[in-house]
Task: structure prediction
Amino acid sequence: MRAANLELCDLCGANEREFIFSTPRLNGPLVRCRDCSLYFVPSNGDASGVPTAASQMEWLSERALELDLVDPSVEERERPWRELAARERVEELLSFVASGRLLEVGCSTGEFLFASGNHFKATGIEADEGSSGVARSRGLHCLPGSLPEAHLEAEGFDVVALYHTIEHLPSPKRAVSEAQRLLRPGGWLVIETPDIGSPWFTILGARWRQFIPDHRYFFTQKTIRRLCIDAGFEVRSVRQVGKAMSTRLFASRVGRYSKRLGSALSILGARLGVEEKTLRLNLGDVMRLYAQKSGQESGGRG
Result:
């Protein structure tokens, strides 16, 4: 599949791609670059017809609701487990860098910003207006909009973190290059994102849980490493990670595969009174990468 007017691969710049499949769960067909094997959904004119990142996020969120992929009543009650996940992310981050200035791109309602406050001077960026407003109402330093719109000072941060953000962005390559500009020499980049190289994609195909309308890029460990190395980072660690969640959210997520089973689990959990119990799942289809900007190591500055 090749044409002069095709959108170029964001990772390697090639214009040859292989069609994988189409599914209503994605905002276009899933394709794979024939040169570097990056999986992505071409923009092809952006079906939402809206120009801003905030408007695009709103449209895609509405699409996820139409497909019944998320239950807002469940998501709203998950905050304690998001806070737990944030604390655990901070704890792991501290094994790489102990202090300094931290930037989280895609900070949502600010759970990670809050959790990191005892160790870092934290700033967030969030394109969703409602979420960024919630973060600011909690007294957190959260900038509305996208990373390019922030116009932040070069070499002003010791950590740039993107937890489940890189797969949403128009250009992961530009985002990682901007992170490289923002980090001091020796600073740390953290990326957490779905791993399409996991067996679950092979087994489930278009029904894989990570296929939702606002996911556009899907990395393997090989392609996420290349993304960072090409931008001037040294990859220090790539690991599979899970997270804590309520049994209520687990039942909701099972519903993405089987509505009947998800509903049955939800009813059973309510009857047994275990909806608030914590589950820890690591399905091996999410990876977390730590990479360091080349240069003298940064010990962190406040």
In short: Residues 79-93 form the longest helix (15 residues). The radius of gyration is 19 Å.
